[in-house]
Specification:
- The chain is an alpha+beta fold.
- It has 3 domains: 1-53 and 66-124, no CATH class; 169-326, Mog1/PsbP, alpha/beta/alpha sandwich (Protein Transport Mog1p, Chain A); 340-517, Protein Transport Mog1p, Chain A (3-Layer(aba) Sandwich), CATH 3.40.1000.10.
- 21% of the residues lie in helices and 30% in strands.
- The chain has 8 helices and 24 strands.
- The chain has helices at residues 18-21, 134-164, 174-184, 199-205, 234-246, 310-322, 405-421, 501-513; strands at 4-6, 15-17, 26-28, 35-37, 186-188, 196-197, 209-213, 218-226, 250-265, 268-278, 284-294, 297-306, 324-326, 340-344, 350-355, 359-362, 371-377, 392-399, 437-440, 450-455, 458-468, 474-483, 489-497, 516-517.
- Strand 14 and strand 15 (350-355) form a beta hairpin.
- Helix 5 packs antiparallel against helix 8 (501-513).
- The longest helix has 31 residues, at 134-164.
């Protein structure tokens, strides 16, 4: 016999102890309140005995005296038991739980169930939930109606803006276009399909916008930088352009075209870099970079494609430049004057001004014995580290007299070769680098490598040279030579690491422009 019984109500979880239901004719579930009645079961026939004939136990007749141990759980008026008793139908449709045999409950054990309550089952009506108030329904409807109308108006405005915008402008995020106007003082109409923005290229080159297309393959990239109160020099513009190209392309070769009225970017005369290289997919490419500056902001526009497709792409590249326009921000902007420091020669009658913060005057001890002035220059971006391969050196030499400019130029070049060989002091004709060479530079990017021209306030000869102490030590040298007749020969030797010639070439030129005659020592 099981030790527990579950409440017959299928939705109730109450469990009754077997002792609580023994002999009970009705139950009231303390959890769900449902009342149950049970039909009495006929007593089981007595087992036959072997020594006695089989007999049938007769139930006591109606009106017999009750058992002295009457259970409190037994019904007060038990129904008469017939030989074949009919099932008692309860007043409610409650499940009938058959009991194996009536068992008299222990009077001493108190029961938590109320078996003397009414037999009717109490039906509880489900509580009716209140509906939404009418005013709240109306408010929600109003919000939905007016909110939908507002969304339609906003969508219409945005659609109209797209309808009247230039072709392709929908590819440029509004916040990005606004940043170009506010921070870069320019606007640009991006190329239309099949052109697509290239975020990978943009990140690799550290540019502000990049587009790419195929069939034929072509690339466009745009960058700008705010220099605040100063106008970037050509040296900085070229250096930045090459730095960005080399961060993405391999084996970059280039040639710088001087500024001209025919070459413009955002309406300003621009430097043009014609370059070649190899892209990450090992495709040989050729392209152009136009760079200029206006109102303290530098601009770079790169375009390139496969070498074989250059002629096909030239017109498309030109159209990009036409879609690149300056804004009207910083109206009235003027550059803060570049602070310079004047110096005057002590061995020859000349004077010079050099840019403060870029050049620093040095003591002549430890440099060439003919040096009158020594300047050491550092790339402003590398000022803290002051790496030697990033620096530049200027020595102003006072050489012996020469009959004319041609002889003065030859004397200066021969002396430069001796400087490169580094003659050992006190060792006769022995040199540290006897195989050193000095040759005219043979680079597409260099102009006027061996020419007689104006040098500041003098007429002189200009050399652009490649000096080699050894196969691994290459220097770029710009040397200006002035024949001062009876005074002697003035040679200004400007040198830097060969790899940094792009940057320092643009700083040597303005320095030499400041070289002027000075009467008296």
């Amino acid at each position: 016999m099981p030790s527990t019984f579950h409440c017959p109500n299928p939705v109730c979880t109450e469990v009754f102890d077997a002792e609580a239901v023994k002999g009970a004719s009705r139950l009231v579930c303390p959890r769900c309140g449902t009342k149950f009645e049970f039909r009495p079961r006929a007593p089981a026939p007595a087992k036959p005995r072997t020594a006695m004939p089989k007999t049938t136990t007769t139930p006591p007749a109606s009106g017999s005296a009750p058992s002295p141990r009457r259970s409190a759980l037994a019904p007060t008026k038990p129904a008469a038991i017939q030989p074949n008793p009919a099932p008692v139908t309860p007043k409610i449709a409650a499940p009938i739980i058959p009991i194996a045999a009536p068992v008299v409950a222990d009077e001493a054990a108190p029961s938590a169930l109320d078996f003397d309550s009414e037999s009717e089952v109490v039906h509880r009506k489900p509580r009716r939930r209140g509906g939404m108030p009418g005013w709240l329904t109306a408010a929600i409807l109003l919000v939905l109606i007016f909110g939908g109308a507002l969304l339609l108006v906003v969508a219409a405005i945005r659609m109209s803006a797209n309808w009247f915008a230039p072709a392709g402008s929908s590819d440029l995020a509004p916040e990005q276009a606004a940043a170009f106007v506010q921070q870069g003082n320019f606007s640009i109409v991006p190329p239309t399909k099949p052109w697509q923005q290239d975020k990978v290229l943009q990140a690799a080159m550290k540019v502000d916008l990049a587009y790419r297309r195929s069939g034929p393959s072509s690339v466009m990239a745009l960058a700008f930088k705010d220099y605040k109160k100063k106008l970037p020099r050509d040296a900085e513009l070229i250096d930045a352009a090459l730095s960005k190209l080399r961060s993405y392309l391999g084996s970059v070769e280039y040639e710088v075209q001087p500024k001209s009225e025919e070459t413009k970017l955002v309406g300003q005369p621009a430097l043009q870099l014609d370059f070649q290289g190899e892209d990450p997919e090992h495709v040989q490419i050729t392209g152009q970079c136009l760079t200029t500056a206006s109102r303290g902001i530098g601009y770079w526009l790169f375009t390139w494609g496969p070498v074989d497709d250059q002629d096909k792409l030239a017109n498309e590249w030109a159209s990009f430049r036409q879609n690149f326009k300056l804004g009207d921000q910083r109206e009235g902007w003027t550059e803060a004057p570049r602070e310079t420091i004047p110096i005057k020669g002590s061995k020859l009658p000349y004077k010079l001004e050099y840019a403060k913060g870029l050049w620093e005057k040095q003591l002549t001890d430890g440099y060439d014995k003919r040096a009158d002035v020594v300047l050491l220059g550092y790339d402003p971006k590398d000022k803290a580290a002051r790496r030697g391969d990033q620096a530049a050196l200027v020595q102003i030499l006072a050489l012996d007299k020469a009959p004319d400019l041609e002889a003065a130029a030859k004397e200066a070049r021969d002396y430069l070769l001796e400087m490169e060989k580094e003659k050992q002091e006190g060792a006769g004709d022995k040199y540290n680098f006897p195989e050193a060479t000095v040759e005219v530079a043979n680079e597409k990017s260099l102009q006027n490598v061996d020419v007689t021209t104006n040098i500041g306030g003098f007429r002189g000869h200009l050399f652009k040279l490649e000096a080699k102490k050894s196969g691994e030590q290459r220097k770029y040298v710009v040397m200006a030579v002035v024949n001062m007749e009876s005074e002697g020969v003035l040679a200004v030797v400007c040198e830097c690491d060969w790899a940094r010639r792009d940057y320092w070439e643009q700083e040597f030129t303005p320095l030499l422009d400041k070289l002027k005659p000075a009467r008296g020592k």
